[in-house]
Every structure is written in structure tokens, then in C-alpha cells.
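fwd from M.: "can u put these together and see what the complex looks like"

so here's what she sent:
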Amino acid sequence: MAPNCIFCAIVAGEAPCTPIIEDETVMAFMDIHPANEGHCLVIPKMHYPTLFETPPEVFAAVARLVVRVSLAVQAALRPPGLNLLQANGAAAGQSVSHVHVHVLPRRPDDGLALNWSRTAPADPAKIAAIAEQIRRHLPPA
Ligand code: 5GP
Ligand code: ZN
């Protein structure tokens, strides 16, 4: 448990939450400031600040619960759309430094924006060069 981490406090039962489900590794609960109705969060119980410190097998357990919770949100609320969102670092919008995935129901007019252009393709050579850089840094599977 990390000091001053609100999600660790929730896991420890020292801070309140509206739970959905938990097991020994992972937990899902409602977001206290929902961007839309049904917005919830899935976390590992162990404290890892971001995706970069999270062991892949732990994130895999998070992902399995994300799928279950997303299916339940979809069946319960029937939103027209649903985003999964996972932020790492303040520049990505991360405000709680305990890795988590947002399960975020969407409506066409909800005003939430990840608003990059899908209509102006970048230079293919530049994309290929960046892909080569990324491939060189892939950790072993
Ligand atoms: P982030 O900004 O790090 O991607 O997402 C953090 C999320 O945690 C936000 O959507 C915020 O509303 C939620 N949050 C922050 N504090 C609490 C809390 O005490 N309880 C719950 N349930 N959610 C919280
Ligand atoms: Zn924590």
C-alpha cells in the first residue's frame, strides 16, 4: 500500500467506494466524478503508479476484469458507445497515480473529446520511421 494513494486506501477499506466486484488481485468500482452515467474504474489491488511499472500478468488480470465489467455496463445501461481509457502521466491526464482503466460509456453528444484529426494523414515515411524506432525498443514477449 502506497502512502497518500486514494486507490490503495479504497483497496484497504480505509476510504469508501461503490464497489462492483473484486477478487484477490483486482477490483472494479464506480468513479466518484463520473464523466457519464456508468463510468467505472478497474484497478490492480497492488500499487503500481502507471502501466510502465505494472507486471504484464497483473495488467492481464485487470484487462480480464475490464472485459467483464464492460459487458455488464453495456448490458445494464445500453450506452450507444463505450471507451476504455488508461492514462499514464499528467500529460496524458492521469490524476491518480495508481494504475487504472476507465470503463466509460459514451453518447454522441456528451462533449468528451479525444479530438485528433482522422482526416489528415501524416507523412507515411515519418510514420514508418517512428514504427522502426518503436520496434527497436520492444521488450521481449
Ligand atoms: P485519471 O485522471 O487518473 O485517469 O482518473 C482518476 C479517476 O479517479 C477520476 O475519474 C476520478 O474521478 C476518480 N477518483 C478520484 N478520487 C476518487 C475516489 O476517492 N473514489 C473514486 N471512486 N474515484 C475517484
Ligand atoms: Zn495505490
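replying to her w this: The beta strands are 19-22, 26-30, 40-44, 81-85, 101-106.
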